[in-house]
Design goal:
It is a single chain. The protein is mostly helical. It has two domains: 22-144; 155-192, no CATH class. It has helices at 2-19, 25-49, 58-83, 88-104, 110-125, 131-144, 175-181, 187-192; strands at 155-157, 164-166. The protein has a two-stranded antiparallel sheet. Strand 1 (155-157) and strand 2 form a beta hairpin. Pfam families: DUF6624. InterPro entries: DUF6624.
Length: 197
């Protein structure tokens, strides 16, 4: 009887073991290195905008941001071709979110961003990627296509008043309902994050 119960225990657990995925540490390391470079120049840019010290002038920051974005896009295309949109099961939460940030900055190739958005949608439906980040990318793609956004994540900042306002939104009366469904804070709270007065 003991043998039978051990055997049944193995049968019950074995599908779980076979379904577990292993983090691709090489891919994760590559994505995190790309993300680190992506953020380095954006942090320097934010420092300049906010009147903080930076080791670089605006021209150098802009040049390096463009260079890094171009190089990252080349690598991101290779990753998408081989793996699709890397979800939590492949590169963990940090890796998946880092990859999303890289895609956010691939504005030079809107068709590629759209492709990544479709692939990310599949991962979000599986709860294998961030719904919040998906909303940001969807808005970015819509704005890039010349359409109104859905979630109000894309904003402009008035240089005189320093107030942020969202770029045009579809059905703006229900924007907070849509934001809530993907885990975003209310729009007014989000806009306060940009307040530099």
């Amino acid at each position: 009887m003991k043998l039978l119960s051990v055997f049944l225990f193995f049968i019950v657990l074995s599908p779980v073991a076979f379904c577990e995925s292993k983090i691709d540490s090489v891919l994760l390391k590559s994505i995190m290195m790309m993300f680190k470079e992506d953020q380095k120049w954006r942090i320097e840019s934010r420092n300049l905008i906010n009147g903080k010290k930076s080791l670089y002038n605006e021209a150098t920051i802009n040049k390096n941001t463009g260079r890094v974005d171009s190089l990252n896009m080349i690598e991101a295309k290779k990753i998408i071709s081989k793996h699709g949109f890397p979800g939590y099961d492949l590169v963990g939460e940090d890796g998946s979110k880092g990859f999303w940030a890289i895609i956010q900055h691939c504005d030079e190739d809107l068709a590629f961003q759209q492709r990544a958005l479709v692939l990310m949608s599949k991962q979000v439906k599986r709860h294998n990627a961030s719904g919040e980040n998906y909303a940001f990318l969807q808005d970015r793609v819509l704005i890039g296509q010349g359409h109104k956004q859905l979630y109000g994540t894309q904003v402009s900042i008035d240089l005189k008043t320093h107030y942020a306002k969202p770029l045009p939104i579809q059905d703006s009366l229900n924007v907070d309902l849509r934001r809530k469904t993907v885990g975003l804070s209310p729009l007014n709270d989000y806009l306060k994050l940009f307040d530099r007065r």
